[in-house]
Fold this protein.
Amino acid sequence: MKKVFIDSDIILDIATGREPFYVDSTAVLSLIENGYALGVMSSNSITNIYYILRKISTGEKAKKFIRTILKCITIISVEHQDIQNALESKFKDFEDGVQYFSAKRNRCDYIITRNIKDYAFSEIEVIEPKEFILLFKQ
């Protein structure tokens, strides 16, 4: 089974119903929920998602949403070395660097994101939701 790192933009697409991304992002989560892949996110992503959702809704609704996604997504840690690696890396976005090094340390097979350019230095294959869905249509 493939281990896939889910970038927070995918989860926020679902939480906010963001069009035109909602359908593909929901399909990614559905594939994970149905056991086609193991979906993981970094611990800092969950706190960022909570923060954003609380700002646009309420803390209780944000917690309810997070409880729902935790039924199919496994949270992986961010460790000291991930932070140091991100600080020393060529990643322009520090958060993306932290997520990348956490995904790499956890031996993820893919990073699923809508922002492929943010992971230009990735040694892990980076794909958009639509590409991930196509892996299972064949």
